[in-house]
Design a protein that fits this description.
Blueprint (H helix, E strand, L loop, with lengths): L20 H12 L3 E2 H4 L5 H6 L2 E6 L3 E2 L9 E2 L9 H12 L3 E6 L10 H14 L4 E5 L7 H8 L5 E3 L9 H4 L5 H12 L4 E8 L5 H13 L4 E6 L16 H14 L3 E4 L15
Parallel strand pairs: 2-5, 3-4, 5-6, 6-7, 7-8, 8-9, 9-10
Antiparallel strand pairs: 1-2
Helix pairs in contact: 4-5, 5-6
Length: 284
Amino acid sequence: MKKEDIVRKPKWMKSPLPSGKTYIKVKEVVKKNKLHTICTSGNCPNMGECWNAGTATFMILGDICTRSCKFCDVKTGKPLAVDLEEPFRVADSVAKMKIKHCVLTSVDRDDLEDGGAEIWKQTILEVKKLNPTVTIEGLIPDFDARPELITKVIDAGAQVISHNMETVRRLTPSTRSRAKYDRSLEVLRIISASKARSKSGIMLGIGEKPEEVMETLRDMRNVGVEVVTIGQYLRPSPKHLPIIEFIRPEVFKEYERIGLEMGFRYVESGPLVRSSYHAEKHVI
């Protein structure tokens, strides 16, 4: 990395290193069961806090994505064959970790006819079967907004179904691979019309304007989204989108206030907030 590529983080972006007995145990189970977590793949700053609170995010369908979004550090390329045993391993791991709230997400699998919806369904069902008291959130890809695939995942019974808008309308084409702004809104509309609680998230600091953030919040609320997360984008490497601005904590606080006034049930807004931050609270 060149010296000019190094951006010094402001003091409000500092987070403690993950530690604690629960964190260590979760880490060991993840490694032993050959699972992928977005906590580690995304280098989440809240990993220690979430794992110690009994929340973990599992990434299913492998760790190679068919899309190459400019903000994401997950590997892109040709994915390996679907692992039909993965749903059972995830369920077993949730039990061994004594997880209270399980968040599931996945890479995009545009190489599969159903986008991976069947594995999504089976994973949720197996987690529920082996862990009847655990609550579940599914952070799903867009499935090209195909209602039958989205519904298949919803009907498996996760309490919260989430799909991230990621950014504002203007920046979507240059930020997200294949995804469309209005397609994501349609996914959220389908979720909101179901029995599941709908959730989405955006990141700030890549050149969006305040009025564009407001527009995106309104668009999400207009299709029925109940929970929204707003966090600071962090550049994984010099190959990814540059950070245009570090948004100050007071600005995030103002977006939280505005979001609650718009009618969102929960607004998690802060520099270190990520999609799964305080996810266990969004079920209530």
